Amino acid sequence: MEHPHKASNCLHGVEAEFNIEFDTSEEAIIVLNSIKPEINGSPSDRTSVSMVISGRTLKLLMNAQDTPSFRASLNSYLRWIKLSNEIIRLKNEF
């Protein structure tokens, strides 16, 4: 049994902004549009995410109630961004 006075290792109220720069503003827009359904249909009520374009930079703004939900959401969004970027690269090769 955990001691009732033991401090939690979990942060509460995590907020972060990530700036992801692409080669062109068109690529940033393509990635944003490909991820939009995930933003609008987020299954978690513990995390909120918004994304905006500034030139060729995609800004990912994330607020979470706790570190586990923050980490899970961040990993998901980074995977989706990476996958979208890889698809753009493959398309550009052909």
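(the above was protein one; protein two follows)
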Amino acid sequence: MNPETGNPEKDDRAGDTRFYRFRLFVAGDEPNSLQARAVLARLCEEHFKERCEVQIVDVFEDYRAALDHRVIVVPTLIVEAPPIAVTIMGSLGDGEEVLAALGLAGKGGRP
């Protein structure tokens, strides 16, 4: 949320102040799950700093959460805030594609 305007959707690409909440569904220490965790951690550090919250859900430990969120493929990243309705499936191997899906950069571009 932009403290100046109170607008939760502020996004001027250079000074995005929105808060992001991610829920990443993984399957234990499977290679794609480990990669998804690492890519999301890197993206959060490089682009969101302290403007994000990440919840990791291991479907081996909490399959009910996966059912509740209709997750049938892991890894799956659900963006819960801001309300942009994005679900990304796969290992998140291409961080630029993840940023593009979030509307933060075009493929090959920087936010």
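Reviewer note on protein two: The chain is about 30% helix and 20% strand.
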